[in-house]
Amino acid sequence: MNWSVMIPLVFFLILIFVIGFWASKYVRTTDSSFLAEYFLGGRQLGGLILAMTMIATYGSASSFIGGPGVAYTEGLGWVLLAMSQVVTGYFVLMVLGKKFAIMSRRYHAVTLIDFLKGRYQSKWVVLVSAFSIILFLFSAMAAQWVGGARLIESLTGLSYISALFIFAVSVLVYVILGGFRAVALTDTVQGIVMLVGTLVLLIATIIAGGGIDSIMTDLQAENPNLITPFGAEGNLSASYVSSFWILVGVGVVGLPHVTVRAMSYKNSRAMHRALIIGTIVVGFIMLNMHLIGVFSRPILPGIEVGDKVMPLIALEVLPAWLAGVVLAAPMAAIMSTVDSLLLVVSSAVVKDVYLNYVEPKATHKKVKKLSFTITAVLGILVFLMALDPPDLLIWLNLFAFGGLEAAFIWPVVMGLYWKKGNKHGALASMLIGILSYILFHLYLPNLFGLHTVVMPIILSLAGYVIVSLITTKSGKESLVQS
Amino acid sequence: MSKDKEHFRIAHREAWIGVALAVFNFIWWFGFAYGLGGKSPSSYHYILGLPAWFFYSCVLGFIVMVVLVTVVVKLWFVEVPFEEEEGEES
């Protein structure tokens, strides 16, 4: 075992625990608004923490470990694709914006589903959205745990099961004890680790490669396509790369674990600061991280498994202790995504299903106990799943994020800004979004050279508008009845 | 109620600004990447060691967006209270 790499990693984990315990103080001392504190940090986030928690949440394992690996294979074309994520830094907060902040307070919404419930007043909208969140995000979470455990396994030489155990315990302790506040604070630490880590590694890689000029010359000599926007084989078409603006760019507005953050901030000033900080940090991390992948190619040619590019290049160009610090960055990325997924799934079970339809009059004490228990049980379930991931889970994870975007983007956005939107439209939009995503994924992937996510998002918009217009009258009637 | 309307008017305007920024961001990104990058790699120009298409689209484009977002937020975004009159919840 490489101890000089391990010590910074262990230090990082201890820091995360300390934050978890500190935040648990808030959870223990609030009583009346326990749910708002546990699942939303009491709506008290400031600008920096808001920006960092949003970035850390969607900068997941796939982009952090997988991203540089693909950039290594595809060249600058993949960095171009990754830069479509800069838009998330400002778009999500601007579009949901102040209207979402005002409305979610008015509905006393603690989760995305609370918001939909307040807006559409429909049991079916709530149940369908809770079901899809639990199913899809649970699978996405399990897949991320597998990624986290594999990373620890490859860094430390521990067995997969012990690596998974370490990962699970670290995440569970601070999420269960500290709730959303702990998650947001650890996300901030993790975001800073990612920011500094990628910058240090990028600089070291450029130096090791003899400057950007000579790296570019080497790349062009190996394969000129590596420095074009079209990928190593020339098959990254402009329309395909552009459609990632929907999947990882503007479509992120529909992801429940991202949306919930847009109701967690304290005031307008926090939001304004987060817009600026968020844009800077997300662009910086994405650019650095993916350039590292491309620049590694001349230094360490012939890496077969993309996921190993980050760890190998760090160990190659940095002193061991610094490599340990830098490699805490992908760990941080995975943990910060997993923790928010866990909390969103847990809130869907406790708040959206149990409190709405099973026992609306549960006492505060019971709700508190239930929240801790459900979060813990979910964590243990994910752990068991990740030990030997079933095929169904892997399959669901493949379209978890795209499917959720197609399901939620229009009920949320149109629900905010279009008065005529109603529950029938929302329900149609969600069902069309999820089902068409699955069907396109299976039978017509990448139709017209666009990523699979594009068509379902268009169809679910059509479904929302058409069904809302047709049923406007009956929609009003049922609103009066309820 | 009129106060409410005013707040929503501000919120709607800011949402549209977000959409406009995203459209501009996309055009800049796409235009430089495929406008300059579509040529043969042997005829590329380089800026700071990077191919010109990449520098303009991804590096300069990112800096331009940061500046635009900062300016837009400082000049046109208005502070609005979120709590209702009752203001008990915190």
From TrEMBL, chain A:
GO terms in the biological process aspect are:
sodium ion export across plasma membrane
Q: Which residues cross the membrane?
A: 6-24, 45-65, 77-96, 124-146, 158-180, 192-212, 244-263, 275-300, 320-350, 370-387, 393-418, 425-444, 450-470
Q: Pfam families from the xrefs?
A: SSF
Question: Could you say which residues form the signal peptide?
Answer: none
InterPro entries per UniProt: Na/Glc_symporter_sf (IPR038377), Na/pantothenate_symporter (IPR011849), Na/solute_symporter (IPR001734), Na/solute_symporter_CS (IPR018212), Sodium:Solute_Symporter (IPR050277)
Write out the entry's keywords from A to Z.
Cell membrane, Membrane, Transmembrane, Transmembrane helix, Transport
GO molecular function terms listed in the Swiss-Prot or TrEMBL record? pantothenate transmembrane transporter activity; sodium ion transmembrane transporter activity
Provide one Gene Ontology cellular component. Answer: plasma membrane
Give the location in the cell: Membrane
- State the membrane topology: Multi-pass membrane protein
Q: Which NCBIfam families match?
A: panF, sss
Protein family per UniProt: Belongs to the sodium:solute symporter (SSF) (TC 2.A.21) family.
Which protein, by its recorded name, is this?
Sodium/pantothenate symporter
The organism's taxonomic lineage, starting at the top: Bacteria, Bacillati, Bacillota, Bacilli, Bacillales
Automatic annotation (TrEMBL), chain B:
What's the superkingdom here?
A: Bacteria
What keywords does the record list, in alphabetical order?
Membrane, Transmembrane, Transmembrane helix
Could you list the residue ranges that cross the membrane? 15-34, 54-77
InterPro entries noted in UniProt:
DUF997
The protein's matches in PANTHER family, at most eight in alphabetical order, are given as: INNER MEMBRANE PROTEIN (PTHR39174:SF1), INNER MEMBRANE PROTEIN-RELATED (PTHR39174)
- Name of the protein described by the UniProt record: Uncharacterized membrane protein YhdT
- Per the UniProt record, the source organism is Thalassobacillus cyri
